[in-house]
Amino acid sequence: MRILHCCLAAFYIDGYNYQENVLPRISKEKGHDVLIIASTETYVGNTSLGYVAPSDYITEYGVPIKRLPYKHIVSHRISRKIRKYIGLYDAIERFAPDIIFSHDISYASVIDVVEYVKNHPNVTFLADTHTAAYNSGLNWMSLNILHRLIYKRYIGKTIPYLKKYYYIGPAERDFSVINYGVPEGVMEFLPLGGIIPDAATYMRQREKFRREFGVAEGELLLVHSGKLVAEKKTVELLRAFKKVESMRARMVIIGSIPKDTETEILSMIETDERVEYVGWQQSDFLLGCLCGADLYCQPGSVSATLQNAICCRAAVMARPVDAYKMLDKGNFFWVEKEEDIVNVLRVVCENPQVVMDAKKASVVCAKEYLDYYQMERKIILER
């Protein structure tokens, strides 16, 4: 099977464990021919989004990547919003896919994909959406001009040729229905997921990382990660943790700290010897650390790492957004403000067994909803 992944509605970052990284990797592992066509937007220096030159290369997992440049439309700022790409149709034609999976379809060149599907009716065209009110259309111009006018036009031309239009959560479904006019009949739930390690790998990684961070017998390991902007509520988490001084636990913080939060976050880390900051790390390190974790703490903005944490058998502390509520099998501790975080940590401190029970529920959740191997199989079966 020849499978094309189009990552043209946003950035594509090498070496991560996002959906668009993992699904092609699994297909390649299973012996399929895979190609990722991506924009030139990516992380530069592992800290912030930027742009690289158009290029062709192969990932460490053997997946070919083709990065295409924008067609210049007035200015770079407008070009990166319209997202018309040079050479997309020719690139698709050369690869000759059996399945095309487009990660979001809010880009002008989706019309090129539609044209290819019209000319090759045996091709299966699938797409998903990661676009919601919490991450898109955040001002009047963006919502009413970009989404409700420009993207709506492109998406409307695309929907008749899609076999499935997946949404990763209720907020994404609602945004597409309300702002793009997508009929619910073509939509289907497909959440972000993760890789479920086998028992031997899990125990090996768990022992390694708990030993590395000096987690003593009877102590819990808490993990917090991401780009630690104010919305992540890292400061609130650290303050709450410090208030529960009797808690026998270690906390590891992984990620990059922006300049505007750096002084406050680092000073708080220095005042609590139970906390260790390890900076930005490669995905293998993060996944290993998640295997070692008992509680993954994400009290602020959403992140795909939460699903990976569940797949690594960690309980999770999170804000009660709809997409996460759908995954609740008893593995979540819900928080909205700092006081809630303190209360959860106190409960955990007084009765660590509640975390162990929640970890067992994460195993159930991961198998039922989040296994990327099952998702990849589902996509192949759409053919």
Q: Topology of this protein?
A:
Blueprint: E1 2-7, H1 19-29, E2 33-38, E3 41-44, E4 48-51, E5 55-58, E6 64-67, H2 76-82, H3 88-95, E7 99-103, H4 110-119, E8 124-129, H5 140-158, E9 164-167, H6 170-180, E10 187-189, H7 199-212, E11 220-227, H8 234-243, E12 249-256, H9 259-270, E13 275-279, H10 283-292, E14 295-298, H11 305-311, E15 315-318, H12 322-325, E16 332-334, H13 338-350, H14 353-370, H15 372-381
Parallel strand pairs: 1-2, 1-7, 2-6, 7-8, 8-9, 9-10, 11-12, 11-14, 12-13, 14-15, 15-16
Antiparallel strand pairs: 3-4, 5-6
Number of helices: 15
The CATH architecture of the largest domain can be given as 3-Layer(aba) Sandwich
Helix share bin = 40-55%
Which runs of at least 5 residues are low in confidence (pLDDT < 50)? none
Q: Can you identify the CATH superfamily of the largest domain?
A: Glycogen Phosphorylase B
Q: Quick one: overall form?
A: globular
Would you kindly provide a written description of the structure presented here, covering whatever features stand out?
The radius of gyration is 21 Å and the shape is globular. The chain is α/β, with parallel strands linked by helices and 383 residues long. The longest helix has 19 residues, at 140-158. The model has no long low-confidence stretch (mean pLDDT 95). Helix 8 (234-243) packs across helix 13 (338-350). It is 43% helix and 20% strand. Strands 5-6-2-1-7-8-9-10 form an 8-stranded mixed beta sheet, sandwiched between helices. A 6-stranded parallel beta sheet has the order 13-12-11-14-15-16, sandwiched between helices. A two-stranded antiparallel ribbon has the order 3-4. It has helices at 19-29, 76-82, 88-95, 110-119, 140-158, 170-180, 199-212, 234-243, 259-270, 283-292, 305-311, 322-325, 338-350, 353-370, 372-381; strands at residues 2-7, 33-38, 41-44, 48-51, 55-58, 64-67, 99-103, 124-129, 164-167, 187-189, 220-227, 249-256, 275-279, 295-298, 315-318, 332-334. It folds into 2 domains: 2-190, 3-Layer(aba) Sandwich (Rossmann fold); 199-370, Glycogen Phosphorylase B (Rossmann fold), CATH 3.40.50.2000. It contains 15 helices and 16 strands.
